[in-house]
Each structure stands twice: as C-alpha cells, then as structure tokens.
Design a protein that fits this description.
- The strands form 3 sheets. Strands 9, 10, 11, 12, 13 and 14 form a 6-stranded mixed sheet that branches. Strands 3-4-1-2-5 form a 5-stranded mixed sheet. The chain has a 3-stranded antiparallel sheet with strand order 6-7-8, with no helix packed on it.
- The mean pLDDT is 89.
- The chain has 264 residues and is α+β, with helices and mostly antiparallel strands.
- The protein has 5 helices and 14 strands.
- The longest helix has 17 residues, at 247-263.
- Strand 7 and strand 8 form a beta hairpin.
- It has 3 domains: 3-99, no CATH class; 102-130, no CATH class; 133-263, Alpha-Beta Complex (Nucleoside Triphosphate Pyrophosphohydrolase), CATH 3.90.79.10.
C-alpha cells in the first residue's frame, strides 16, 4: 500500500526566507492556500510516511498570498518543542534553494531533482543536496561553575555556551578544544557527547558536548567575545541565557539539574 497516497498532505509556505501564516497564527495548511503555479520550488519534507509535508517556496512578491509572514525565530518562540525539527528543516531547505541556483562546477543553472530533495545540473550531471555545516557547542564545567560567554552578535545581553564550526580534517573533539582555546583562552579535558540539534541559522548541525576545565585564565577573543566568566549554578536562573528550544539551553539546564540534584 502506498501510504503517501492515503495520508493527508500538509503545506508550508515560505517567501523571502520567512514562513507564511494566517490570521490565527497557523503555518501548516491542509489545503493549498495559493496558486502553486506561482511557486519557485516545491519540496517534499516528509521524514516519516505518516506525516506528508510539502514546502512551497514563493517569490517574495507573493508574501501577500497569505495573511501574514513571520520569521523563524518568532515562530520557534511561540511553538512547542515538537515543531522545531520541521521548522528547522523548512528554513534550511528554503535558504539552500535560494543560495544554490547555479552549478558550482560549470555554472549552469540547476534544475529540480525529480526524485530526491536535491538539485541537479543537466550539463555536467552534478547533484546538489541541502547544505549541512557541522559545528560543536559545549558547556565547560568547573565543579559547581560553568563558563558562559556573550558573543558580539548578540543584540541584547545574553550569556551562552561556546560554539564553532568543525574545520576540514578535524574531529569534533579537536574542534571543541581549539574553539574553547581561541574564544576564551582555556584548556579542557574529559570531553563527552550529550546531544545534537539541527540549527537553521543558516544550515548548522550542532553537536553538543560537556567538557571539564583543565587550565588557563579566561581571555575573551577580541572581535568575537564581549564578555566571558564563570557562573555558579545558583546564578543561572537570574542570568539572561538562551531560550528553551536551543541546544545551548539544553546543556545549561542539564548542568543545573545535575548540580541541584547533588545538593538535595
């Protein structure tokens, strides 16, 4: 039995890298909400047969096809944690579709792949899949203290875990030690994996770790880190930290829970 034919299809609409919604805030639709002939691309985002999802990418001029458009960060802050994977997938595919119009090998315009979530070059045969950039993100621990930093990209005071991209040829553990050394000047040991998260800003795959402090004084990297310091676990509830849907917050919450359990 072909489940894809018996299951109801839901649609997500994106225009200008923003997600469209109606006046009730709904962003998944069980019936087409505009003329799909106007779409730039239509992608199948289905991960399990029981949930048939189509992403319809519209030109920016068609943003008015639905009542409103909202940014992904806003949607994530308003939605339940269960919506994060689908919103992340939709955002990453939208960004990839917009930024990969031509073949990187021969510069021919790419066309929609008929079977895979991909684009193909009719001239040289190269297939392009949505881009994923592996990153590490880590909470450095020193007893009942954890190391948090405020990056230059934060527009408001917020302390978060340290993160960075994995370079070609590096292991995740090597990248973690290098990033921590570069960003705050300390050495770590006992690196241990915790969890992962696909992060759609714009196409990162975050590998989350804990690491223990080994040596060194905190020296924030100029141009990258505004401030970095050790926080006692009792301070965290009154410290501006990332929202709950982020992997950074998951690491912080796990550390906080562990410390509180030890003191009970």
């Amino acid at each position: 039995m072909d489940l894809s034919k018996s299951m109801q299809i839901e649609y997500i609409y994106a225009a200008g890298n923003r997600v469209c919604s109606d006046d009730l805030g709904r962003w998944r639709f069980t019936a087409p909400c505009c003329d799909h002939a106007l779409a730039l691309e239509i992608y199948n985002l289905t991960l399990v047969p029981e949930q048939q999802i189509r992403l319809v990418i519209l030109p920016e001029s068609q943003q008015g096809s639905l009542t409103s458009v909202r940014g992904l960060r806003q949607l994530l802050s308003e939605s339940g944690e269960q919506d994060f994977p689908l919103l992340s997938r939709a955002a990453q595919v939208t960004t990839w579709s917009r930024d990969h119009l031509y073949c990187p090998r021969c510069a021919t315009a790419l066309s929609h792949h008929q079977q895979d979530l991909a684009k193909q070059c009719e001239a040289c045969g190269l297939t392009q899949y949505p881009r994923l950039s592996p990153c590490i993100i880590t909470l450095v621990i020193r007893g009942e203290y954890c190391l948090l930093a405020q990056g230059v990209r934060f527009t408001e005071p917020r302390y978060s875990t340290l993160a960075g991209f994995i370079e070609a040829g590096e292991s995740a553990e090597d990248a973690l030690a290098r990033e921590v050394r570069e960003e705050v000047g300390v050495e770590v040991a006992n690196i241990r994996y915790y969890c992962s998260q696909s992060w759609p800003f714009p196409h990162s795959f975050m590998l989350g770790f804990f690491a223990d402090y080994l040596s060194g004084d905190i020296v924030p990297e100029p141009g990258e880190i505004v401030d970095a310091r050790w926080f006692h676990y009792s301070e965290l509830k009154n410290t501006p930290i990332p929202p709950g849907f982020t992997i950074s917050r998951q690491l912080i919450d796990a550390f906080l829970e562990q410390c509180e359990t030890k003191t009970d």
